[in-house]
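To the structural biology subgroup,

Please find below the input and predicted structure for Nicotinamide/nicotinic acid mononucleotide adenylyltransferase 3, which we are adding to the shared reference set this quarter. The sequence is reproduced verbatim from the submission form. If anyone notices a discrepancy with their own records, reply to this email rather than editing the shared folder directly, so we keep one authoritative version.
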Amino acid sequence: MCILCNFQVSFVVNTNMTMGATKDVVKYVMLVSCGSFNPPTFMHLRMFELAKNYLQANTNCYAFAGMMSPVNCLYKKKDLISGEHRLAMCRQATSSSDWIFVDPWECEQKQWSRTVVVLRHARELLKSVKENLETPATYTALLNICMKHKEKLMQGNNCQIMLLCGADFLESFSVPGLWASEDIEEIVKTFGLVVITRKNSDPFRFVHESDILYRYRKNIHLITEWIPNEISSTAIRRALKRNESVQYLIPEGCVGHQPDWIDEFIDKNFNLRKSAFDEVMAIGRSCSLRSALIIESTENSLSRRNMPQLKHKFNISDGNQAVYICEFKDSLSFNRFLDQVSQKFASNVFPMKSRIIKCSRGVSEMDVHTFPRLACEFEKIDFNHLYSLLGNASTANQQIDILFQHTKIHKEGMRLRFFLTTLIEDAVRRCFPFAICRPFGSTVNGFAQKNCDLDVNIQLYTESIDKLSADQYYFCSRYKPKSERTYIQNTLSILADVLGNFMPSFTHVQKILHARVPIIKLYHQTLGIRCDVTLDNKSAYKTAKVFWLFGKMNAHFKPLLFVVRYWAKQIGLTRPHPGPYITNFHIICLVTFFLQSRTPPLLPSIDKLLKNDFQMNEWIKDHVYSKTKTVELLVEFFNFYSKNVNCEICELNLRTATVKSKPSSSLLVIWNPFEEGHNICKNLNEEEFQRFLLAIKEAANIAESMKYKKDIDDPNWGLLSLLLPSNYTFVIVFYSFLMERGSCKEHTNDVEDQKIKISYPKGTCSPYCQSFTIEKEDHTLGVVLRFIISKYPEVRFCSYNVPHPMEDRIMLHIETDQSVLAVDVLKRGLKQASFIFETLKTKVEEAVSKYKN
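Predicted structure (tokenized):
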């Protein structure tokens, strides 16, 4: 106790002695600190206090204000998060200070600003505030600070701006090409420097050896930090990536202002680099692994007060129940929460722990193990509203943007899919503790639409595991089958049984093990997401990464792709089920190759992209032209494949971005970028290939005459004319119901003879909401079809009517939940009705035969 008292007395005496040396104030100084603040640390704040104490004790200056100016995103520093989040963190860090404020000016500029420019801005800002002290119009942070020193600040020109920095910042003056000598001279001559020493730095020697700095050494204040603080933003970011706690290292509340990883994933201003995709994928997986889906019985029963370690709480409620994805700050706090979750296992349930949790008091066993079916609004597309917006747009280019914005996946939809991926990983890790599950395909390559399927790849281990013990103990394991395919098929089969039989909410598990790439299909009942799972699919992740980078490199890529893909879906080129058809992956490759091959190219070849010395930002500056409009690229796309490239005799190679004559007998050849010798269009049949060629030619003709601006007299102007199925000589494969054969038969010839006609209800052009006319069939068929189709879970509404009682014609209207096309529902209904009629016919014949006998 005596030692502590002596220490306190000694400290107070030394402080008073120092403060006693303070000179009369002549200059009022505003300290300006420029940096990334990614995130702000206690050292950033400590620098202001050190500078203030030093100036007051050793000079005739008084630091009355401190300004933090986060650098612009276009500075392109590694791992730099968005300015919005850094501003929020800085404001949170300075919230307890009465003299340090955050200025957003530098962050809000359209280009990166040099430090001297920021200092000039600070000078003008302070001048403007001083002029308005008598009659302030609006109260800003700086104005509030200045009002405390109003009398002193009004006494003539007694204010000065000084740059506050660390010794490492000062030493960067010597880096060749980084600083202009005139900027350095203006900073030290006009403004002045306050430098805080850091470990292993010698700013005194550096000033002595620099001619410019030595010339103006009287304007440079070097402050020794006797209580070293080596906290760095880089170390903080590393800890956050590793899911480690940073509490007590940065100001309270700054962790909560760390950007949502989904925002970083889709941010247009993302600091583009080749490792960015891997980094965001790793962060997304880490955040999802420490998240839980919590279903509440009462609104707002879950709060940060009850769960202080909650980092984010995302509302995915659908109106029927309160449902949240809760993300915790770190794994430790998440595991503590899981330890508090009660168990209500009984003899009739499998005792499995899941991250789908119910929050309720006095809940029964049945309530606990009954899962809701979410119908999230952000997963739905309102096609009536979409087509209304398209019709009311001003230009065709605006229509493309509307289509893109209204059909692309919502960020909460992405969050659900990453979360579902980790739920699958939870199940797999019960058997294989080193396994990692990663989403691939449209979910992560940037091309995902609302209500899209999820593709997941399982890796049982990512690298050889050679952990050695001191006594050389080893785990005994079993060798895999020699056949890679057999190993994949057997493992997927077992995992399908585990997911389908033991894990809650996984249903409709199908094993498709004899495909070229074996998969298991499943459906998550609560999240309402369909999922395809593969094992050790080595090319899937690489492909997703390349397309994601392409989407970041060119702003036109994704909107153009969305339009072409939607066009192919509207006219029936692509189907929701596998078959010998054009697929979405084919469309992605076709659009990519077009952007690689046009003059000038808007995307590089994949080989060029993957070179170690390839600089993406430099390539973008040289090749991307902001004046190019997406609608112009759309017209160019159809002309490219209808006139410039003959797909009947050429093969397309995305690796080299070249066209060659195809030696193989395949109809359409597009080489898989990461599977040598594999043609992704191998399954395409002759009929679908010819349909594709015809569709491209007709679309090119329509696009050439497409109106780029709104035409009041033409309701189908612009993009609508391209998407209208009636503008094409074919639409979708038509089916006729032949009762005498008891089967459905495809009719693709002679449109006039087709028995089923497709029409769209007024005000819509959606493939999920269609009316069908069935010619030359008995009215009984309408009753049977309505009865069958109405029972399908994906059908929202089904009705039928008879246009005229004396005509054998039926009108059937089908509206689905957008998970399946209306025409596919009709196909299934016709086949089922065919079977019913055939069975009925057989029973009638048997009954008649018995009666006759």
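Summary notes: The two ends are 116 Å apart (CA to CA). The chain is about 40% helix and 15% strand.

Regards,
Lab coordination
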